[in-house]
Amino acid sequence: MNKIRVRLADWHKDNADIQRIRNAVFVAEQHVPPELEFDAEDPGAVHFLAMEGDYSIGTARLLPDGTIGRVSVLKDWRGLKVGDALMKAVINEAQKRNLKQQMLSAQVHATAFYERLGFKVISEEFLEAGIPHVDMVRDSSEIA
């Protein structure tokens, strides 16, 4: 296996890869309706692609207000720290943009993953696209 790297993506140029990953993870696996998966926030977001060689295996996005979302890794690459690499790149970019606080809505089963990265649960459980979620926040000024 090649070393996994994460790069900034261009919504227009890399759209096929971003859509392929998100469709596989959210639409096909988790049955999220496509009209909920792709929204008006995508064109203005900063997108990321996790790569193995020249093949895109994961994606995430960062909104201008510090909201992280659409974190997804193709099934065959899960458990290989791809999500960690993606999230570290997103957090690093948020900090470069002086976004002191990063927020996300996490699927409940993934809260421990985000807690390891410094996020804290700040809401009760709620349903989003029929999947249990919680809101989480990470304050860069509190983390050394």
TrEMBL record:
The keyword Flavoprotein does not apply. InterPro entries: Acyl_CoA_acyltransferase, Bact_Acetyltransf, GNAT_dom. It comes from the Bacteria. Keywords: Acyltransferase, Transferase. It holds the Pfam family Acetyltransf_10. Residues 4-141 form the N-acetyltransferase domain. SUPFAM superfamilies: Acyl-CoA N-acyltransferases (Nat) (SSF55729). This is GNAT family N-acetyltransferase. It comes from Pseudomonas boreofloridensis.
